[in-house]
Amino acid sequence: MLAPGRAKPKPTPETKHFWDGTKDGKLLLQRCGDTGKAYFPPRPFSPYTGTRNVTVFEASGRATLHSYVIHHRPVPGFTPPYAIAVVELEEGPRMMTNIVDCEQTPEALVLDMPLQVAFTPMDDDITLPLFRPAKGGV
Amino acid sequence: MLGRGEIAIVGAAETTQLGAIPGMSQIMLHADAALNAMAETGLKPADIDGVACVGPMMPQQIAHYLGITPKWVDGTGVGGCSFMLHVRHAAAAIHAGYANTILITHGESGKSRINATPRPAEPEGLNGQFEMPYGPFGPPTLFPIPVLRYMKKYGVTHEDLATVAVVQREWAGKNPRAMFRDPITVDDVLNSRMIAYPFRILQCCLVTDGGGALILTKADRAKDFPTKPVYILGTGESVESNMVSQMEDFTSSRAFRVAGPTAIEAAGIDRKDVDHMMIYDAFAHLPLYGLEDLGFCKPGEAAGFIREGNTRPGGKLPLNTTGGGLSYTHTGMYGMFALQESVRQMRGAAPAQVPGAKVSVCHGVGGMFSASGTIVFSNERP
To answer: According to the lineage, what is the superkingdom (chain A) (predicted)?
Structure first.
């Protein structure tokens, strides 16, 4: 369970499946029916072609570290310094997250390092998809 | 089609004071700048028939406060470059005959926070769901997120990103109204307090109070005013995502790549004709992205361009000649101050005047790479 104080997401009709998924231990993305390309954040149509013909699928949870900052000032729910990261999922989309089980230093946080999703509950309602370094590399 | 130089800036002024202005609320900062711009043109509120300012419900507040009855308003609010979009929209509106004399105002009590615009949490919004839970705390934690990817791709160093701040401080030293004027070195930057790695406090913008106002009309009327007209040659605008995590390329801004070249092509100028440039510098990486995305440097070459002194006083492309958001002022929406400096340079009236400058490019960003607007100015009508 995460420390209290973080901003808590409030699901909407278009994103409920995503947050239901994380609570269930699944990282759910959507795929465009016209192009076959995955996309994020959730919406019931494709940002590539506008088609409503889209499907929800479970992502592998594998990702790489795309970029980040290490914040050095206090924020409710966080102990500085902490990294605010963007990861690139194996399926293509990127998402903001935090990196856990890893020193929050430039030396430990190496761009393109392999990561694996780590579902982490905020409370009974919301589970966040955080990421940790992948075991044994890629 | 709007002609090159068909519309001119005839009034341009900042608030009487800049920096800490505890004696004025936000709406009065708008009004103070507007009164200064009207005073230099000899215009009264009754002479203004169009008003633009940032945000929902704001045009009516500003128009009524100033005693203006507009027949055209624009409340476009896409962040700190909104004023570039206002200039673009106002020029089109004057061309279309919707208004004759348009006032664009900015006022922001960014430091003193007197009636400042609140930024409510929106837990149902996409930012609220997919960014805020991970601990961002304002622009210093969000805007620099793409930087490490840019540094890795192009081999840009911490020293390069410190040099941006050093060069701008050199310009600030020539501006009596700049908040920070003492020279700094690369070591000073790299030893300053860490805010959000890789950026330290000297690579982050100031937080100040202030405002600015512009008055636009047809260039044919410009001779009716005592000020030296500054002509609008070309304009551009675009938006990308309101979530920095979703920008399509962390090493280049799509909004910049649309707005900048659109303005330069509309102006009919060659990049080598540009004598002066402003690139909104909320943080030290923005001039690098701006120089590259607007085509003044090839991708990955802007850091070297700055390191070699091209943007310094005496360089071939003087850039951010006030000291910019890093050293001059930054109320929260800095774009108005970039426009003011381009106008001053075109009037020949800037404290750090670029001798003989005839063409100025003014490029703004809004949000965290989420919007962009670009204006090309000249003091010569084509």
So the answer is: Bacteria
B157 at A interface, C-beta within 8 A: no
Inter-chain contacts counted by CB atoms under 8 A, chains A and B? 108
CA B181 to chain centre: 20
| Cβ <8 Å between A71 and B137 | yes
Contact between A69 and B243 using a beta-carbon 8 Å cutoff = no
Kindly report the length of chain A: 138
**A67 interface with B at CB cutoff 8 Å:** yes
Interface membership of A1 toward B (CB under 8 Å): no
| Contacting residues of A for B144, CB less than 8 Å apart | 69
Q: What is the largest CA-CA distance in chain A?
A: 45
Any idea what the CATH number is for the domain that residue B335 is in?
3.40.47.10
For residue range B141-173, what is the model confidence (pLDDT) as tens digits? 999 999 999 999 999 999 999 999 999 999 999
**Domain-located, residue B197:** no
What is the pLDDT at residue A1?
Answer: 84
φ/ψ bin of A92: left (φ > 0), alpha (ψ from -120 to 50), beta (otherwise): left
pLDDT at A137 over 70: no
Shortest Cα distance, chain B CAs vs residue A135, angstroms: 23
| Average per-residue pLDDT for chain A | 96
> Tens of pLDDT along A27-82?
999 999 999 999 999 999 999 999 999 999 999 999 999 999 999 999 999 999 99
Categorise residue B321: left if φ over 0, alpha if ψ from -120 to 50, beta otherwise.
Answer: alpha
Tell whether B47 is covered by a domain. yes
**Which residues, in sequence order, are CB contacts of B23 under 8 Å at separation 6+?**
none
**Chain centroid to CA B27: how far?**
20
**Does residue B335 lie within any of the structural domains?**
yes
Question: The tokens 């938006």 sit on which residue?
Answer: B239
Q: What interface predicted TM-score (ipTM) does this complex get?
A: 0.97
Beta-ladder partners of B283: B204
- Which of B132, B135, B152 lies closest to A71 in CB terms? B135
Residues with Cβ within 8 Å of B224's Cβ and at least 6 positions away in sequence, in order, are: none
Chain B residues within 8 A of A63 when measuring between CB atoms: none
pLDDT band per the 50, 70, 90 thresholds, residue A138: very low
Domain count for chain B, please give it: 1
Would the CB atoms of B197 and A81 count as touching at under 8 Å? yes
Contact B141 A69 (CB under 8 A): yes
Q: Whole-angstrom distance between the N-terminal and C-terminal Cα of chain A?
A: 27
Domain, as residue range, for B230: 7-115+206-378
Spell out the residues 6+ positions from residue A24 whose beta carbon is closer than 8 angstroms to its own: none
Q: What is the mean pLDDT of residues B79-87?
A: 98
- Determine whether the interchain pair B135/A81 forms a contact, defined as Cβ–Cβ distance below 8 Å: no
- B184 domain residue, yes or no: no
Nearest CA in chain B to A112: B149
CB contact (8 A) between residue B128 and residue A7? yes
